[in-house]
Specification:
The chain has helices spanning about 5-20, 35-45, 95-100, 120-135, 185-190, 245-250; strands spanning about 55-60, 75-80, 85-90, 105-110, 145, 160, 165-170, 180-185, 195-200, 200-205, 220-225, 230-235, 260-265. The chain is α+β, with helices and mostly antiparallel strands.
């Protein structure tokens, strides 16, 4: 929703008017409009730091669709996962967030269609309303009905081939660091101490070492690490957009850019020069 308009203030005011003893945490208001994959990435990166019983409101693409355009619609729903509540329109977010994990349970919010005026600000009038009832102690059975299945939006996955991993940049953070969808568990399948080259954007942009921290390379040098959530990240040590320049600015990186890692196990190509022939 951004922070230039009244929407976020209206949501917070509604919370405080309903319940005084509550902690409001802003995860992000800068998700690109309708980008449920970005919303899922951000929430999956931090939900584990919240206590049980936390209610998350995901106000991205939140207006319900009722059999519009021949689709089966999308309805405000509640996911219970790891004893936390995730309230969102069932627009593909839940599938992107869970990936291959199974929910504790999944519920569709009742009585959505009786008042079309609620659709004018659905994040507040539908999603937040349900969240406040949960915070007050109402049973979920009084708010929603169990439902089998939820939509799964297309989310690019990193893939393995012979001596190769292909992945994509899925997020660029405030520093200009490029976070990929290549997880360290996938990288580890190729074994320990196997030589590799990480290519991004151009053939002369490559890294052949995974560092354990940014400061393992000199200031201003490119670096690859596995971040706290285990995903491969391309960065510039002590570089940042808006100052000295982050990896995004210096290398011209964008979300959805491909990243590939080519491994050279014993008996295959032996030198970096051979990659360019």
């Amino acid at each position: 929703m951004g922070l230039n308009d009244h929407y976020v203030a209206s949501l917070k005011g509604t919370i405080l008017k309903s319940q005084k003893d509550v902690h409001i945490i802003d995860i992000s208001h800068a998700v690109k409009p309708f980008d449920i994959s970005e919303a899922a990435f951000l929430l999956s990166s931090c939900y584990k730091d919240f206590p049980e019983g936390t209610v998350h409101i995901i106000g991205v693409d939140s207006e319900p669709i009722v059999n519009f355009g021949g689709t089966d619609g999308s309805f405000p729903s509640i996911l219970i996962y790891k004893k936390q509540y995730f309230i969102c329109n069932d627009n593909g977010f839940f599938g992107s967030f869970l990936k291959e994990e199974a929910p504790d349970s999944f519920w569709r919010i009742d009585d959505v269609l009786s008042n079309p005026n609620l659709f004018q600000f659905p994040t507040k009038n539908l999603l937040l309303t349900a969240g406040l009832l949960l915070l007050k102690g109402d049973k979920i059975e009084n708010i929603a009905s169990p439902f089998e299945g939820y939509k799964k939006a297309f989310t690019p996955m990193a893939i393995m081939e012979t001596n190769l991993i292909k992945g994509y940049i899925i997020h660029i953070d405030n520093f200009g660091n490029a976070i990929t969808n290549i997880h360290k568990s996938l990288f580890a399948r190729f074994g320990k101490d196997i030589p590799f080259i990480l290519y991004f954007k151009k053939e002369d942009y490559y890294i052949d070492v995974i560092s354990s921290s940014y400061n393992e390379v000199p200031q201003g040098e490119k670096v690859a690490i596995f971040n706290e959530n285990g995903y491969l990240e391309i960065a510039i040590n002590r570089g940042a957009n808006g100052s000295t320049g982050g990896a995004q600015q210096l290398f011209g990186l964008h979300t959805h850019d491909m990243v590939r890692i080519e491994f050279t196990p014993q008996g295959s190509r032996q030198t970096i020069d051979s990659f360019f022939t």
